[in-house]
Design goal:
Elements: E1 2-6, H1 13-24, E2 28-30, H2 31-41, H3 44-54, H4 61-71, E3 81-84, H5 90-103, E4 109-114, H6 117-133, H7 144-167, E5 171-175, H8 180-195
Parallel strand pairs: 1-3, 1-4, 2-3, 4-5
The chain binds adenosine monophosphate.
């Protein structure tokens, strides 16, 4: 199973991806996590990405496409994967299509998390409070001002990715405003349809 999870930051993609990993035994490929690891390790990609990420903007397409191309070659991605946070631009979606076509690997589904954006700012503030309470470092880009920039990047650069997959007849939608378990159920129903 090869899945893409689309939707604005804070829509619940990461939470649902973690559940899918557990249930289906395929890895979650989060470009955000991979970039944060690169920043932490101080790799050349990390050095390039750090300031961009802290500002809430998008890292250049060529950088993330390169990361994903390498990652899907890893043995654990052979039986499938869940892409979370990628593609975030139409150019990334086109590059992914080319990559998968070359390998003869079709996508199973592209799932768009539909949410009310006004609620996201509060959700993210909540995530920051929870992380702080657990003694974890709060993501710098969860700061309310930076979060607004991330939402703008979503609206301008990522929302067209949904239209891209829609025009190819590959887009499915879940209502991301439901309780977490209900979102999971809706997701599983979509996946069962694609498998069956
Ligand atoms: P995320 O954890 O998915 O919210 O990503 C955190 C940050 O990493 C984003 O705000 C971007 O700066 C960067 N990033 C993650 N994925 C991508 C991507 N596919 N394209 C460009 N930048 C990305």
């Amino acid at each position: 199973m090869r899945l893409i999870l689309l939707g604005p930051p804070g829509a619940g993609k990461g939470t649902q991806a973690a559940r899918l990993v557990e249930k289906h035994g395929i890895p979650q490929l989060s470009t955000g996590d991979m970039l944060r690891a690169a920043v932490k390790a101080g790799t050349p990609i990390g050095l390039e990405a750090k300031a961009i990420m802290e500002a809430g903007k998008l890292v250049p397409d060529a950088v993330v496409v390169g990361i994903v191309a390498d990652r899907i070659e890893e043995p654990d991605a052979r039986k499938g994967f869940i892409l979370d946070g990628f593609p975030r631009t139409v150019a990334q979606a086109e590059a992914l299509d080319r990559m998968l076509a070359q390998k003869g690997l079709p996508l199973s589904a592209v799932i768009d998390f539909v949410v009310d954006e006004t609620i996201l700012v509060e959700r993210i503030a909540g995530r920051a409070r929870e992380m702080q309470a657990r003694g974890e470092a709060v993501r710098k880009d969860d700061d309310p001002e930076v979060f607004k920039t991330r939402l703008e990047a979503y609206r301008e650069q990522t929302a067209p990715v949904s239209a891209y997959y829609e025009s190819k007849g590959q887009l499915e939608r879940v209502d991301g405003m439901q309780p977490i378990d209900d979102v999971t159920r809706q997701l599983e129903a979509i996946l069962a349809r694609h498998r069956g």
